[in-house]
Please model this.
Amino acid sequence: MSTRAPIPVVAILIGIIPVSLTLINLSAGGLDMAISITSSAFTDGAMIPKKHTCDAEDISPDLKWSGVPKEAKSLALICDDPDAPAGTWVHWVLFNIPADVTGLPAGISSEAVLKKGAHHGKNDFRKLGYGGPCPPGGTHRYFFKVYALDTLLNLESGSTKAQIVAAMKGHILAEGQLMGKYKR
Model:
């Protein structure tokens, strides 16, 4: 007769708990919901076409997204390059995008306030609107991040990424990102 001990139920449950915890976004105080972002210009992890960079037309790529929670009141978009020599370089900040907007066409205007009420923040080129990839050397990554918020941000056009991130704290319902690369 065998005297093997039964497998403890606690050990089995401990293996399951981390899977369940990944569904909770503790920083936002709610469920971690993902927004899917795509572009017809490039796929996630692929090279960004030259026309969207400082080496050519420097126009913003088209972006489409889905998965925005119905409770969202607005969206924010931040594009930055964490590979810049001096630290993360901000290429684009757009906030108070209406929550029912599901994308942006290529070549968005750099007006302070767009027709549907979205506001441009100031990028690290010290300008409003999109400033495309322009790495000094090597291959850099560019993250286009969309955030669904439970509020409109009480900020003016020209606000910086830091100001927008601070205002978004505790208001993010869901987020997603699309990463493209560029090398000169």
